[in-house]
Amino acid sequence: MKKTKKSTFIRKGDFGYLASEKKKRILITTVLFAVPLLIFFSAILYFHTRLTIWTVIAVVGCLPACKSLVSLIMLFRAKPVDASVYHKIHEHAGALTMSYEMYMTFYEKSANIDAFAICGNTVVGYSSDPKVDAAFMEQECQKILRGNSFKATVKIFTRLEPFLERLDSMNAHKESLEEGIKFRPDEKYPELSRNELIKHTILAICL
């Protein structure tokens, strides 16, 4: 009897995403720089001068690499969730829609958000980032959600225990939290539930 291999594909919002994404972007950035540099030095060796059209092509070819490098630098500012913290949260997550390891960015401020739990119009997050402005992140995240027609209330905890207690409470009252909420599936993402669409919207404003 053949054993089926588990998928190792890590999506945005999964635990381990940041480490996986960093490896992927390092590889992509390296390749993007290697190609124009190879063109540049190959042209010098062949023509014995850098004053050729190939130098221009190499310089222009570095633009995507530079963009990728900036993205990589931003990604290194994001802090992965500690494994012990993730396991504690996972134990209390129950049937809630969860999202992990997010670096939420707005024009004014950015912050690491370890986890979000979503149920109906209740969105609760936890951040271990000592520099997080929880009130600002709550306000801006809520503004984005309501701008996308989700009448959700966002709360971000900066202490783990109260967050875990809230997760337990949300699981205990899950039916009542989702009761009476009208939902029309999105034409672009017909397979996603309302909670998953809220998660998708939050991830769109994160690295």
Features:
207 residues; 4-stranded mixed beta sheet; 7 helices
What do you see in this structure?
- This protein has 207 residues and is α+β, with helices and mostly antiparallel strands.
- Helix content is 53%, strand content 14%.
- The protein has helices spanning 17-47, 53-77, 83-93, 134-147, 160-172, 174-178, 194-203; strands at residues 97-105, 110-119, 122-126, 153-157.
- It has a four-stranded mixed β-sheet.
- Helix 1 runs antiparallel to helix 2 and helix 3 (83-93) packs parallel to helix 5.
- It is elongated, with a radius of gyration of 22 Å.
- The two termini are 41 Å apart.
- The model is unreliable at 1-7 (pLDDT under 50).
Topology summary:
Elements: H1 17-47, H2 53-77, H3 83-93, E1 97-105, E2 110-119, E3 122-126, H4 134-147, E4 153-157, H5 160-172, H6 174-178, H7 194-203
Parallel strand pairs: 3-4
Antiparallel strand pairs: 1-2, 2-3
Helix pairs in contact: 1-2, 3-5
